[in-house]
Design brief:
Chain lengths: 332, 634
C-alpha cells in the first residue's frame, strides 16, 4: 500500500509538467496577446491608444521573447510560489485569486450538500421501485434538470426572483454589502442570493447523481446475497442499507476526485450569467482577454487540485474496497 | 433618522459659521460637518482655493442643488475604474459645452504666439489630502518623471514636442509656470483637456517616497520587494497612476477620490473635500457625496440597470436595450434618454490605398471609383433597416454640432445616385462585363472586392449585407471576410486587405483648435493609408511616402495647421482638410449620430436630456459636469 501511494505521488510530477506545457501552449495558440485585446477594448469605447506605449509594455512584460523562454520563466516562478502578474488587474495573481476563493468554496460546498440531500433519497427510491410510476416521474424530473441549459435556468430564476422577491439581479449579495465585514444583514443577504446558484448548479449534478446511484444500486439489488438476506428475513431497510448501498457507493468515492477542483471553480458559465463573485468568471475573463499568467496559473491550480483529488479518491477506494486494492497490486 | 440628524447639525453649524464669518459665504457640506466640528478637516472656506471656480448653474440652464447622496453606476471590469477620471473631468483646462477650451484647475492661462504658454494656478488650491498644490508638483512631473529616462523610456509625450523638440520649462513663482517652444504647439492645450489627459501635475509630496532621486536605496528596495514588483520604476508607475486611480492613497484633484483597494468588485469614490469648484450659492461641489461603481458581468448590466441598480448609466447599454429599459422606466423610477454618438460614422468602408495588387491600387486611387462606390449606397435604407431611422445619413465627416460643419461635407458624394455611380465607373473604362453581369478589371479579372471585418460587431455585417446589394447594381461584387483585429491590421499594412470595414473618425466634434490628424495620413492605424501613416509616425524611416497629390496636399495642410500661430490660420487649414476628405471620399461613411441610451434616476437632477456621448472630446458625461448632478428626496 505504501509503495502504491509513493508511486502515485511520483507520477504526479510528470503529469503536472505535461499539463503545464499543454496549458501554456493552448493559451498561446490564439492570435494576438493581452495587449492586442486591451487595445481593442479601448478602441471599442472610442479611446485612443499610444501604440508606442503598447510596444513598451510588451517589452516590459517580456512578450518580445520567444514563447519557450517565457514558458520556463513562468514554470520557474510557479515552483517558487510566484504565479505571475495579471495585466488586466495590474496585481500579482496570488492576490487576486485568494480573495474570491472563499466565496467559491461556500457556493460549491452548499451546492454539493444540496445535491446529496436531493439525489440520495431519490436515487434509492427509484432504484427500489424500478419501472414504477414514481420511478418514471422522478427520472423525468431529473432528466429535465440535466437537459435544461444552466444559463437559461439562471436567467429565468433571476428574473422571477427579482420580480417576486425583489432580490437584486446577479451577485452573491446585495451590492452594498460587497467588501463589508461579515454581519447578520450581510449573511441574510448572502442567503437571499445563494439559493439561486445552488439550485441551478445543483439540478444538473443532482440528475447525474440520481442516475448513477440508481444504476449501481440496481446492479447490486439483483445479486444473490441480497436475495439470501431477504430470504433469511432481514428487514427491508437493513437489507438495502447494510450491503447493496455500500457497494453502490464506489462511484461516489471516485467522485471526490472531481469535487476538489469543483470547490474552487464550479460552473463557470452559470457564475458568469449570475455575475457571482467567485473564481469562475475571473478565469473566463482572463482567458478571453488573454491575461495569460492569470489564466495559466489558475488552470494549474485546478490541475493540481484534480491530481490530488484523484489520488485521495483512489486511496480511499483502495481502503474501502479490497477488490480494487488487489487488482492494483497485480498490475504492478 | 441619520439624515435628519445630519441636517439638523448642518443647520446649526451653518448658523455658527455664518455668524462667525459673515453672510454670503461658503456653506459647509453636511456630510463633512462632523469632521470639521471634530477638527479633522478645516472649514470649507479654508479647503477651497482663494479663488475657486464658481459654477453658475442658472446661467447653464440648470438648477442649483443640495449636497448629499450616492450615485450608483455599473461597470463590466475593474479596469473601468478609469471611467471615474473620465466622468470627473477635472483638468488643467477643459472643453466647455461649445467645445472651447476654458481653465478649470488653472485660474487662468496665457498663450503668446501659440508657442509660449503660461499657467496661473489657483492660490490656496490643495490636493485631496490637504497638501498645497503648487508649481513644485508641475516641476516634479516635468523634471523627475517626464524627463527621467528610467520612468519615461520612450521619451516625452508626443503632445509636448514640436518638430521633435521639447519646451523650455520655467517656474516663475509657486503659482505660475511657463512652457516655451520654438514654434507653435497647437496640440498642447487640447491634450490637457482630453478625456485621457496629458498629466502635468503629480502630487510630489506623496510620490517622492517612491522615487529613486528622493528615497534612499535601502528603503526603496524594501518597498519594491513588498509590492512584488520588478523595479522602483514599476512601483512608481503603479503608485502614481492618475488615469486609473487604483491607488487609494494617491492624492487627486478630481471631484471624487477612490477609497477602495484592489482587488474588489465595488469601488467607492468619496467626495474630495478640497475640490476647487463651488456653486453660486456657496455649496462646494461635487453635490453627490459618493460615487459607487459595482463591477458585474457586462452582459447583466442592461438587466440590472432595468431593475434600478444604477442612477446614471450609459456604458454597456446598447441601442437594442432601449425598449426593455423604456418598459422598466416607471417600475424602477428612472428615465431613459437617447444621446447622440460622437463618431464620424457608425460603420465606414475603408478602401486601402496601399493595397499590394497594382491593378486594384490604381483603381482605388482613382477618386471617381471611390465616389461611385459611395454614391451607390442607399444610406436612408441602412438607417431605417439597421438603426431604426434614428441615426442620420452622412459621409464620414464632422457632426453638425462642430463649428467646422457644412451641409456639403455631409452630402458631398454621399447621396444615393446609382445612375451617376454607374456612369462614373463607365467613365473609368470598366465597361466590360462578365457572365453574371459583374464588371471586369482591365486585366480581365472580375471586380470582386473582399471587405474584411474585425468580426466584433454584427452591425458591420448587417450593413455590409445591404451594401452587397447596392454594389451589385453598379456591377461590383462584394465579399465579406471575417477576420480578427490584429490580423486585419497587419493585412492592411502589408497590402493584402483591399478593403476593410471600421467605424468612422473617433472625434467628429472637431473645433479648429483640435488636431486634424484623423483626416490626414499620420498613423499606421488608419486603414485607408497605413503605409503613409507609418511613414509619418516613423519620421520617414519606415513605410511609404505619400505619392498621391491629394494626400500630399493633406500633409501640407496639416503642416500649415501645426505651424499656424493664429486661430484663423488653423481654421482655414481645417476647412480645406475636410473639403479634400469629402471630395476625395477616402473613407466611405454610412450613417452617424447613432443613439446611445442613457438611464438617469428620476431623483438625479441636472443631467441633460439631450447630449452627445463621446469620449473625445467630451469625456462622456464629463463635459456635462457630473459634480453638478444632485439628488432630490423623491
Amino acid at each position: 500500500m505504501f509503495r502504491y501511494i509513493v508511486r502515485r505521488i511520483l507520477v504526479m510530477i510528470p503529469t503536472l509538467l505535461i499539463i503545464s506545457a499543454l496549458v501554456f501552449t493552448i493559451i498561446e495558440l490564439p492570435p494576438g496577446d493581452y495587449f492586442e485585446s486591451y487595445v481593442a477594448d479601448l478602441q471599442a469605447q472610442g479611446e485612443t491608444v499610444d501604440m508606442q506605449q503598447i510596444a513598451y509594455l510588451r517589452k516590459e512584460y517580456g512578450f518580445d521573447k520567444p514563447p519557450v523562454e517565457r514558458y520556463f520563466v513562468w514554470l520557474w516562478g510557479m515552483m517558487h510560489g510566484n504565479f505571475g502578474y495579471s495585466f488586466e488587474y495590474q496585481l500579482p495573481v496570488t492576490k487576486l485569486i485568494g480573495d474570491r476563493i472563499y466565496l467559491s468554496i461556500i457556493v460549491s460546498l452548499v451546492t454539493i450538500v444540496f445535491t446529496w440531500i436531493i439525489a440520495f433519497p431519490i436515487g434509492i427510491y427509484s432504484a427500489t421501485r424500478q419501472y414504477s410510476w414514481s420511478d418514471y416521474g422522478l427520472t423525468f424530473l431529473g432528466l429535465i434538470g440535466l437537459a435544461t441549459p444552466n444559463f437559461l435556468l439562471a436567467l429565468i430564476f433571476m428574473y422571477f426572483a427579482n420580480l417576486w422577491f425583489g432580490t437584486s439581479i446577479g451577485g452573491l449579495m446585495a451590492d452594498q454589502f460587497i467588501n463589508q465585514p461579515m454581519s447578520w444583514a450581510k449573511f441574510l443577504s448572502v442567503l437571499d442570493h445563494l439559493w439561486i446558484p445552488v439550485i441551478i448548479i445543483g439540478t444538473s449534478h443532482t440528475a447525474g447523481m440520481i442516475r448513477r446511484l440508481r444504476a449501481n444500486l440496481l446492479d447490486e439489488l439483483q445479486k444473490q446475497y441480497v436475495v439470501t438476506a431477504k430470504a433469511k428475513g432481514l428487514p427491508a431497510g437493513r437489507a438495502l442499507v447494510k450491503y447493496p448501498l455500500r457497494m453502490a457507493l464506489n462511484f461516489f468515492i471516485s467522485d471526490i476526485g472531481s469535487i476538489l477542483p469543483n470547490l474552487i471553480s464550479g460552473a463557470e458559465v452559470t457564475a458568469i450569467v449570475l455575475s457571482l463573485q467567485t473564481t469562475g468568471p475571473l478565469l473566463v475573463q482572463a482567458l478571453r482577454s488573454q491575461d495569460m499568467y492569470l489564466a495559466g496559473s489558475f488552470l494549474m491550480v485546478l490541475a493540481f487540485l484534480t491530481v490530488i483529488g484523484v489520488l485521495v479518491s483512489d486511496i480511499a477506494l483502495a481502503f474501502l474496497d479490497p477488490r480494487i486494492r488487489l487488482q492494483g497490486g497485480s498490475t504492478k | 433618522m441619520k439624515y435628519r440628524l445630519g441636517g439638523l447639525l448642518f443647520v446649526v453649524l451653518s448658523f455658527l459659521w455664518v455668524a462667525a464669518a459673515g453672510a454670503a459665504d461658503y456653506v459647509e457640506t453636511p456630510s463633512l460637518a462632523a469632521e470639521v466640528a471634530a477638527g479633522k478637516l478645516p472649514p470649507v472656506a479654508k479647503r477651497l482655493p482663494e479663488t475657486p471656480r464658481v459654477v453658475d448653474l442658472k446661467a447653464m440652464g440648470r438648477e442649483p442643488g443640495k449636497p448629499g447622496g450616492t450615485i450608483h453606476m455599473l461597470m463590466g471590469s475593474p479596469k473601468d475604474i478609469r471611467m471615474m477620471t473620465v466622468y470627473g473631468y477635472a483638468r488643467f483646462v477643459v472643453f466647455n459645452k461649445d467645445y472651447r477650451i476654458v481653465p478649470d484647475i488653472l485660474k487662468s492661462f496665457d498663450v503668446k504666439d501659440g508657442r509660449i504658454v503660461i499657467f496661473h494656478l489657483r492660490p490656496g488650491h490643495k490636493w485631496s489630502d490637504g497638501h498645497p498644490f503648487t508649481a513644485e508638483d508641475i516641476r516634479f512631473t516635468w523634471e523627475d518623471v517626464m524627463n527621467n529616462e528610467e520612468l519615461s523610456p520612450f521619451g516625452l509625450p508626443r503632445e509636448m514636442l514640436v518638430d521633435g523638440k521639447p519646451p523650455i520649462f520655467t517656474v516663475i513663482d509657486p503659482e505660475t509656470v511657463r512652457f516655451e517652444w520654438a514654434a507653435p504647439n497647437p496640440d498642447f492645450l487640447p491634450a490637457l483637456a482630453g478625456a485621457r489627459p496629458l498629466y502635468l501635475a503629480m502630487p510630489a509630496h506623496y510620490l517622492k517616497q517612491f522615487h529613486a532621486k528622493y528615497q534612499g536605496p535601502a528603503k526603496l528596495a524594501k518597498m519594491v520587494e513588498d509590492a512584488q514588483v520588478r523595479s522602483w520604476t514599476n512601483l512608481f508607475i503603479r503608485m502614481a497612476r492618475q488615469y486609473r486611480p487604483e491607488n487609494p492613497d494617491l492624492p487627486t484633484l478630481e471631484p471624487w477620490m477612490n477609497i477602495s483597494h484592489m482587488p474588489t468588485d465595488r469601488f467607492i469614490f468619496k467626495r474630495n473635500p478640497y475640490f476647487h469648484r463651488v456653486d453660486k450659492e456657496g455649496h462646494q461641489l461635487p453635490y453627490a457625496d459618493q460615487v459607487v461603481m459595482t463591477v458585474v458581468s457586462s452582459s447583466l448590466i442592461p438587466a440590472k440597470t432595468g431593475t434600478g441598480d444604477a442612477d446614471l448609466q450609459a456604458r454597456y447599454l446598447r441601442f437594442d436595450n432601449y425598449t426593455f429599459l423604456k418598459q422598466a422606466e416607471d417600475r424602477s423610477h428612472f428615465d431613459v434618454t437617447l444621446w447622440k454618438n460622437g463618431g464620424g460614422s457608425a460603420v465606414a468602408l475603408v478602401p486601402n490605398l496601399n493595397v499590394a495588387d497594382p491593378v486594384w491600387r490604381k483603381l482605388f486611387r482613382d477618386a471617381r471609383f471611390r465616389r461611385a462606390l459611395s454614391l451607390a449606397i442607399n444610406r436612408d435604407e441602412i438607417n431605417q433597416a439597421v438603426f431604426f431611422g434614428l441615426a442620420s445619413p452622412s459621409a464620414n465627416t464632422v457632426l453638425p454640432e462642430s463649428p467646422l460643419y457644412t451641409d456639403k461635407l455631409r452630402t458631398d458624394w454621399s447621396t444615393f445616385d446609382p445612375a451617376r455611380a454607374n456612369k462614373l465607373v463607365d467613365e473609368i473604362g470598366l465597361t466590360k462585363r462578365g457572365p453574371e453581369g459583374y464588371r471586369l478589371l482591365p486585366d480581365g479579372r472580375k471586380i470582386e472586392i473582399v471587405v474584411e471585418t474585425a468580426g466584433e460587431s454584427t452591425l458591420q455585417t448587417d450593413v455590409l449585407q445591404l451594401v452587397t446589394d447596392y454594389w451589385k447594381k453598379i456591377g461590383i461584387k462584394l465579399f465579406i471576410k471575417t477576420s480578427q483585429r490584429d490580423v486585419l491590421r497587419s493585412r492592411a499594412m502589408s497590402g493584402d486587405a483591399m478593403m476593410t470595414v471600421w467605424s468612422g473618425v473617433d472625434n467628429a466634434l472637431c473645433t479648429p483648435d483640435m488636431n486634424p490628424a484623423e483626416f490626414v495620413p499620420t498613423s499606421e492605424a488608419q486603414l485607408q493609408w497605413p503605409q503613409w501613416g507609418l511613414y509619418y509616425e516613423a519620421n520617414g524611416v519606415k513605410g511609404q511616402k505619400p505619392d498621391m497629390p491629394a494626400a500630399e496636399e493633406l500633409m501640407k495642410l496639416y503642416g500649415d495647421w501645426r505651424h499656424s500661430a493664429t486661430p484663423e490660420g488653423r481654421e482655414a487649414a481645417w476647412k480645406k482638410i475636410l473639403q479634400i476628405n469629402a471630395s476625395q471620399v477616402f473613407t466611405i461613411g454610412t450613417v452617424n449620430a447613432a443613439m446611445q441610451p442613457v438611464v438617469v434616476s428620476r431623483r438625479l437632477h441636472n443631467v441633460p436630456k439631450q447630449g452627445i456621448y463621446s469620449f473625445e472630446p467630451g469625456a462622456y458625461f464629463g463635459i456635462y459636469m457630473p459634480d453638478t448632478f444632485w439628488f432630490s428626496a423623491k
